Amino acid sequence: MSAPPDSPRPLDGVRVIELSSEMGAMAGKLLADMGADVILVEPPGGDPTRDYPPFLDDEPGPDRSLFWWHYQTSKRGVTLDLDQDDDRERFRRLVASADVLLECERPGRPADLGIDFPQLAELRPELIMASVTAFGRNSPSRHEQFTDLTLLAGGGPAWSTGYDDHSLPPVRGGGNQGYNTACHYAVMSILTALLHREVSGRGQHIDVSAYAANNVTTEMASYTWLVQQGTVQRQTGRHAMEQPSLPSQLACADGRWVTTGFPPRHPRELRWLYDWIVELGAEVEFPEAIFLKQGAERSEPLDIQLIGEDDEVTAIFSASREGLVLVASKVSAYEFFERTQKAGISTGVIYSPEEALQDDQFQARGFPVEVHHPELDRSFTYPGAPYKFGRTPWRITRRAPRLGEHQHEVFADLEPAPAD
Question: According to the model, what pLDDT value does residue 360 have?
Answer without folding.
Answer: 87
